[in-house]
Amino acid sequence: MTTFTKLGDQETPVISVHPARRISKINPNIYAGFTEHMGRCIYGGIYDPGNPLSDENGFRKDVLEALKELNIPVVRYPGGNFCATYHWLDGVGPKDQRPSRPELAWLGTETNQFGTDEFMKWCKVLGTEPYLCFNFGTGTLDEALAWVEYCNGTGNTYYANLRRKNGHEEPYNVKYWALGNETWGPWQVEQMTKEAYAHKAMQWAKALKLLDPSLILILCGQDGTATWDYYTLKHCLLPAFSALSTSSVPLIDMHSIHVYTCSSSHLPNATAPLAAERAIEITSSLIDLARIENNVPPSQPRPTICFDEWNVWDPIRAEGSKGAEESYTLSDALAVAVWLNVFIRKSRDLGMACIAQSVNVISPLMTTKEGITKQTTWWPLYLFSKFMRGWTVSAHVSCATYEGETAPVWLRGVMETPWLDVSASVGEDGFVNLAVVNIHDEKGIEADVQGVKGEVAVFTVTGGDVAATNMKGSEEVSVKESAWDGVGTYVFPKHSLTLLKWKD
Question: What are the residue boundaries of the Alpha-L-arabinofuranosidase C-terminal domain, all occurrences included (predicted)?
Fold first, then answer.
């Protein structure tokens, strides 16, 4: 948690850090990834058979090595919008017998050469857990149950035996499963009303938990601020042994929300992720409201928020049906850093967050036939995933604010937009980590940093200007390491992310 006091432009900013005041545990799953059959994310991204950079499985080794640097705990698959017409059986078994199908989400052809077993193998090589999304469009409950049986079944049953026949004796033990994706959206095949979705989600959840009570089922929300979110939470967050279920465990474990931010102007772009902070707060309140109205006992675990799609994305600049390949700038990197600050500040409510996506598609990591490029947005993700773990700790910021327009417009009326955006954490190793984004594109900001002890390691992400990019053949934005003695004030450079690290 970071609290804020607004100062005048001429007053000296102050950042106070209190490592002893641990607010909430940071779930490592906030650094989760997302791979979808969209553009070059799978084919030509993580899977590129025949390329000399790929291993015997067809997995790009350079991509795997880069992603390992992020210590990604979970990866979502196979979508995204793609999953609304995806039939998992098309993607298992001998590859020469797998059908090619028209793909309606992104208007392409799906060859099914990469499917469930390949994804599970890729997760194992990467060292991450899978998170699968059910087809709530053209899919059936029988198909969903069969997929769980295929992945998790241990008995002498048809789909567990099919997995064994396909060369995979041991179950995959997939824990996380989404009850559809963005089923509220007009772009979805078989778009639903909130009433139809809530009914279907509960019926599927009941059957799925009869098959495997250990599943963590994730409800399909909207953006956390919509009537859809209120209605689905109200009708699906029910007590165990409710009128709709005889299950001894709750049917719904998490609530998914999606938000993308962008603006062609730097300051609205950099402050836009604060809308996600408000969305998390509203969703958290809706979860509490549903539990109160439905008389859910306090002994029943409180669902967390699964922010399983987030990023900076301009769908006009990077059209989805054309592969959604963004060329990110320093401004976008600072926006991603603010996104990550939001997740640290709101760690009490977050059970997972998946950046969309992991490779090529609106991604910090891009591939060519010859290698990879780490975009500007790679570096804040790298620093946060490496250092911002453990517990969120109390911090207070006093500084001036940006007073201009915001994107979305409603943000201006509900949130302050300080020039310094801050979060703080303390790790198991006793090191304090303070992340400070100076969104100002014209001046560095000198601040009194209180709570520092001794020598401070400094990691800085910045560039020549907010339009700097790494997609023109040179790395204009990266991490620079330095040190500070922790004495006096610290000047946070203009348009920069600074991470300060010291032993408590």
Answer: 308-496
